[in-house]
Design goal:
This is DNA-binding protein S1FA. The chain is mainly alpha-helical and 82 residues long. Helices cover 60% and strands 0% of the residues. It is rod-shaped. The N and C termini lie far apart (117 Å).
């Protein structure tokens, strides 16, 4: 009966000598996520460059009359009507 529960050492030796075949699953996940992030960044850069070339420049805000008057007074030119 004691012979039934003995562990055979050759099976443990065989488990130690088993070589990993193929790629590690963790490495595959890392490569897939890395490639998705890289594709996202390259796509964003390409869209940014395209937008810079094709879109017209941004319009400036109109300067208020109050600010115009203030600038003229700083320069020493009196505002018309004063």
């Amino acid at each position: 009966m004691a012979d039934d529960f003995e562990f055979s050492t050759p099976s443990f030796d065989r488990m130690k000598n088993v070589e990993a075949k193929g790629l590690n699953p963790g490495l595959i996940v890392l490569l897939v996520i890395g490639s998705i992030v890289l594709a996202f960044l390259i796509g964003n850069y390409a869209l940014y460059v395209y937008a810079q070339k094709t879109l017209p420049p941004k319009k400036k805000k109109p300067v208020s009359k109050k600010k115009m008057k203030r600038e003229r007074l700083k320069q020493g030119v009196s505002a018309p009507g004063e």
